Amino acid sequence: MPNGKMYVKISGFIYNPAQDKFLIVRRNPNLKVAANKWELPGGKLEAGENDLEHRLVEEVLEETNLKIKPCAPYNAYIRYSPDKERKYLVLTYTTKVLDESVNVKLSEEHTNYAWADVDVLDDYDIEEEEKKAMLKGYKLMH
Fold it and tell me: What is the pLDDT of residues 74-91, one digit of tens each?
């Protein structure tokens, strides 16, 4: 059973309208939660932090080298660690890329990235709730 603590993870739906695709990243296989899974970029709120949008901007920059502006939260769900010891509230925001000339450069937390087409999401190993957030974001931005 979870220890009663709930962690907050913020992720960003980064859409490229010219390609009609959005950015997903593959988690490092050595991570404790969702190893090797594909997800939207983002990260966990640290103890004492309360500015969700600032944390999202920093996490996306750290993980992908992209500078973004969070637009609006649009999805929330609960995720548990595989051992059920940790519970996460995952909040997803629509975002805008501020400099489209910058290329994606991954941190060591991720091993790959893709500009995903909504029609081929089943080709990626994505947790079901994360996939729902992706599809919902796509519908909002499309």
Answer: 999 998 888 888 899 999
